[in-house]
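Problem statement: downstream parser choked on a complex file, so we are re-checking the raw output for the alpha-D-galactopyranose run. The parser issue turned out to be on our end (a line-ending mismatch), but while we're here, posting the original submission so the record is complete.
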Amino acid sequence: MSSRPRNGCRALPVFLGALAIGCAQRPRAAALNPPALRTAFHGVFLVGAALNAAQFSGQDTLGAAIVKAQFNSITPENALKWASVHPRPGTYDFAAGDRYVAFGEQNRMFIVGHNLVWHNQTPRWVFEDSAGRLVSRDTLLARLRDHIRTVVGRYRGRIKGWDVVNEALEDDGTLRRTPWLTILGEDYVAAAFRFAHEADPDAELYYNDYELERAPKRRGAVELVRRLQDEGIPIAAVGLQNHDRLDWPSPAQEDSTIDAFARLGVRVMITELDVDVLPHTSESNPFGDGLPDSLQQALARRYAELFASYLRHRETVTRVTFWGVTDRDSWLNNWPVRGRTNYPLLFGRDGRPKPAFAAVVRTAPTRERRDD
Ligand code: GLA
């Protein structure tokens, strides 16, 4: 069979359809190729992916091609976390961060920074003196300020939005007991936002967390945002990570969570979307040889249901970012159990779109409705 159609366009895999420049406009090709995610949701919200170093540095050419064809926003999976960028006192390493930002600029992406303050992937030295004792509040505040000014300042005007504080809440909605809280006290969240705003007054600043769909934690986040707003701190959005499962959260929980933040006047971004299809309570690897069709279809329905919820709140939800590009890249192959085979994203291990991809695209409003 010839791979060269009569119209002279080189046949490209459907999922890289947006690369078929000059072909995509022709009616027949348009009918055959589902639009790319970023095209389907153009004018509704940005659609992004978290990238690993192989994708933005050029080793994973398939992954990079999917990103360029499908997405219009990127988040670094690890490249800008404290441990990567500031591994030792006084030593910053921007090699990966610079490549990440250059990739985003070359491909005209909305570039997100992730993250500035977290309790994970932060070296111990940040909180300790040379004898291993916890440092004073003043010392830690100075370290935090130096870190944020250096990292945000380096990409000023180029990284458009920052996850300033990540996962600061316990499940009960109180502030998480971390060295940040122990040493700095409750106002460390506000301090981090202030330092980020000083370093780049035009960058959007976000608070990012998981399972805010659970009422106690959501109430804590609403309080946190209110306090920041009362202090005049410019918080632009709350990031809902959405590391979801096939049966959690329910659409009603998602709707009420987005509504709760919309009422505060902040935007909502879905920042780390994936859907875990494996049992959490077992070590077994039930789908090592492939996902049964029934589950493939269940995943597609689940994604359609989630996107329907985001679309009901399209005035509030301004970005939906997947945590990874293909199933091969996903952290869920190694969490909560190492070495399992998971299927949480829209593109399979071979880079091909799964039924969930088409299901998501089908939820997109028509062009007329997008322009409403
Ligand atoms: C959290 C973090 C992310 C990432 C994921 C799991 O959600 O915000 O940076 O580490 O966990 O990979």
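For whoever reads this later: The chain has 14 helices and nine strands.
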